[in-house]
């Protein structure tokens, strides 16, 4: 399915606030609520829209640290790690990447002690590097049309 200008406008509305009604989106983009509903359904069916999420503040939920941790897996340890990482509650996002490291994770932690124990679990699988996140520069940026 190709995404035309109207569908991009609908996607922009949804990315800004997925809880708004189809009628409200229709008013913003200039079509009826049923037309919005039909387009959204088609984009869901095509896998363009993959879900709707609530973004929870880790800090308001009690986590004091957010960190980016990279892992350079030891020989033979990447596949076991790829299974194990799915069990870690601390991991918000995990990416397999190219370059010297194999993995980049975005994690949330209660405190420095929690960070230390989490790293202790990771070093079985490879060499880690940790950066503490100080603040967001861009947060949940929307996907836009390719120019």
Automatic annotation (TrEMBL):
<dbReference type="InterPro" id="IPR011991">
    <property type="entry name" value="ArsR-like_HTH"/>
</dbReference>
<keyword id="KW-0804">Transcription</keyword>
<dbReference type="InterPro" id="IPR036390">
    <property type="entry name" value="WH_DNA-bd_sf"/>
</dbReference>
<dbReference type="GO" id="GO:0005829">
    <property type="term" value="C:cytosol"/>
</dbReference>
<feature type="domain" description="HTH asnC-type">
    <location>
        <begin position="3"/>
        <end position="64"/>
    </location>
</feature>
<dbReference type="GO" id="GO:0043565">
    <property type="term" value="F:sequence-specific DNA binding"/>
</dbReference>
<dbReference type="InterPro" id="IPR019887">
    <property type="entry name" value="Tscrpt_reg_AsnC/Lrp_C"/>
</dbReference>
<keyword id="KW-0238">DNA-binding</keyword>
<dbReference type="InterPro" id="IPR000485">
    <property type="entry name" value="AsnC-type_HTH_dom"/>
</dbReference>
<dbReference type="InterPro" id="IPR019888">
    <property type="entry name" value="Tscrpt_reg_AsnC-like"/>
</dbReference>
<dbReference type="InterPro" id="IPR011008">
    <property type="entry name" value="Dimeric_a/b-barrel"/>
</dbReference>
<dbReference type="GO" id="GO:0006355">
    <property type="term" value="P:regulation of DNA-templated transcription"/>
</dbReference>
<protein>
    <submittedName>
        <fullName>Lrp/AsnC family transcriptional regulator</fullName>
    </submittedName>
</protein>
<dbReference type="InterPro" id="IPR019885">
    <property type="entry name" value="Tscrpt_reg_HTH_AsnC-type_CS"/>
</dbReference>
<dbReference type="Pfam" id="PF01037">
    <property type="entry name" value="AsnC_trans_reg"/>
</dbReference>
<keyword id="KW-0805">Transcription regulation</keyword>
<dbReference type="Pfam" id="PF13412">
    <property type="entry name" value="HTH_24"/>
</dbReference>
<dbReference type="GO" id="GO:0043200">
    <property type="term" value="P:response to amino acid"/>
</dbReference>
<dbReference type="InterPro" id="IPR036388">
    <property type="entry name" value="WH-like_DNA-bd_sf"/>
</dbReference>
């Amino acid at each position: 399915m190709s995404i035309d200008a109207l569908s991009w406008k609908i996607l922009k509305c949804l990315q800004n606030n997925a809880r708004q009604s189809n009628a409200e989106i229709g008013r913003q983009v200039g079509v009826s609520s049923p037309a919005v509903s039909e387009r959204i359904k088609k984009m869901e069916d095509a896998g363009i829209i993959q879900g709707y999420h609530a973004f929870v503040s880790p800090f308001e939920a009690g986590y004091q640290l957010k960190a980016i941790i990279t892992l350079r897996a030891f020989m033979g340890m990447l596949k076991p790690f790829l299974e194990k990482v799915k069990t870690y509650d601390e991991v918000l996002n995990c990416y397999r990447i190219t370059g010297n490291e194999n993995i980049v994770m975005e994690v949330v932690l209660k405190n420095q002690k929690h960070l230390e124990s989490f790293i202790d679990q990771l070093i079985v699988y490879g060499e880690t590097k940790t950066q503490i996140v100080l603040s967001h520069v861009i947060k949940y940026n929307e996907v836009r049309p390719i120019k």
